[in-house]
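Project standup — Tuesday

K.O.: blocked on the structure for the chain from last sprint. Re-posting the sequence here as requested.
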Amino acid sequence: MKDNNNNELVLTLYPNGVGMGYIISDNPKEIINYGVARILPLSKERYIKRLRKFLEIYEPSIVVIRGYLQSDKRISRRTKKMIEAFKLEAENRGLNVYTYTRDDIKNVFDQFGKNTKYHINKTICKWYPELKHRMPNLRRNTQSEHYQTGLFDAFSLMLTHHYIK
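H.V.: unblocked you, prediction finished:
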């Protein structure tokens, strides 16, 4: 499925507490596939199995993964381990791996006057109207994140990569 033009196929992965958001794209205007993969029960083996499936089917040359700071308390140890396992698997296959933190994403979207998750999601819906029906409502402090948030996190990560690169 690799494209024969000069664009490099990019696999963007944003692991979270229920699975991961993913996007396969040539560039921000050419999205091949996207979604949220529910991975239950959560295990390193299941995450890696899903990653390998993406790598075999799409043969990307670049993998973009959610980054984090060691001191970041908002991300679980399990998710940090998944991110490190993804990086190792991609690097072992000779793929270029890029990571961007939530702060990197916020800095990019600051350019558009938006840096909260909700407002970033609204901006993404303006750029990709087909995602409007998946847009999560504004979350209250007592609510857990909506399942579709992982998809919007993956889109914000993919857009950050293309903006910075």
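K.O.: great, moving the ticket to review. The chain has one domain: 10-164. The two ends are 23 Å apart (CA to CA).
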